[in-house]
Amino acid sequence: MLFSRGLYRISKNLRGSLNGCRRYLSSRGQNHQFLLSNNYQSTGSSTERVLRSLIFTKNLPTLYSARHQIHNQSSSIIEDELDPFSLVADELSHVANSLRAMVIAEVPKLASAAEYFFKMGVEGKRFRPTIILLMSTALNVQIPELPTSNELEGTLTTELRSRQRCIAEITEMIHVASLLHDDVLDDADTRRGIGSLNFVMGNKLAVLAGDFLLSRACVALASLKNTEVVSLLATVVEHLVTGETMQMTTTSDQRCSMDYYMQKTYYKTASLISNSCKAIALLAGHTAEVAMLAFDYGKNLGLAFQLIDDVLDFTGTSASLGKGSLSDIHHGIITAPVLFAMEEFPELRDVVDKGFDNPANVNLALEYVGKSRGIQKTRELAIKHANLAAVAIDSLPENDDEEVKRSRRALIDLTHRVITRTK
């Protein structure tokens, strides 16, 4: 009964949260920019500290201008109907073929395991390669240092694009490797709507397949011969391990801290996207300022993506998600909806501290989340980060090239898709 009431209230509050988000986003902002503090030392509740770390300054790009109310159904910044994935469809096919070629191994069993999620039909949404390819075009700004010879410039442009496409391939290999390792740690049995690799072939082979993908990514990374880019993506792997360790070894206070949760989320999800976007800018020879805008886009889009993932874990179905719903709470992982619910109902802390081995505690936690604004607040925080990502794109140097403008609109469209996705 508690379980049913909890899910009913979650569903009811989800409908309310969507209406609340529409009201929230219909308001016009003054000229301001959102800055997320790197330290959370302020006093008060963890939610208040997170919200107080949103510092607004004037004379910077308008966040909710008519052009950039990206999440308000009544106004759209998309001048043309754009499908970000179709814009780079040909290159995505090239990336997919390259990935399948790159994971060929001498040992048939290892090759079969390594290509498990690169086979036709189970490649996933290819969300990260799409971002990288669109960012490559979006940053196609004339670099003063490039020679003016058309023939030489064309050769350099082709070579640059090939190197940037390599970043897309490396990013996807690192991502899939992290999924294989995560599924072993979580004892998952499904992924992308099929049996997880550890469930089908066993934990040992799944771990080795993940290691193999990381080694292939390292070889591809070394071929770029750019030490700054190598350092960036090596840091991503460190962050993935750090984030997973943070999740596994939390103290009671850390589990219930929004600050800790956001840092872990950056390490586990947003670091890969943000540093890959920055690598694209560095390969093109852009300034540190432009590289940081690319980084900010990836960071905020990644955070928004994970926040919506946390919402969907409560509101989605196993069929729509391609994995079990309520999987986080069943594994004792505390995410934003629970943390926000805890702010409203401090007594939920006692339930969390007892753990979720007992199904009654899971049901009680769902009851609290269902009657709280946890789902709504999580969506609102995701929307803030999505809008920050849009502001980063709008702040890039102006460019009149139609392909560049189309790719930038597509990157902004992705922020809308992240917020409105259902799987």
TrEMBL record:
Its cofactor is Mg(2+). GO terms for molecular function: metal ion binding; prenyltransferase activity. It is found in: Mitochondrion. The keyword Transferase applies. GO terms for biological process: isoprenoid biosynthetic process; ubiquinone biosynthetic process. Keywords: Isoprene biosynthesis, Magnesium, Metal-binding, Mitochondrion, Transferase. The keyword Lipid metabolism does not apply. Its main location: mitochondrion. Signal peptide: none annotated. GO terms for cellular component: mitochondrion; transferase complex. Pfam families: polyprenyl_synt. Belongs to the FPP/GGPP synthase family. This is Solanesyl diphosphate synthase 3, chloroplastic/mitochondrial. It comes from Senna tora.
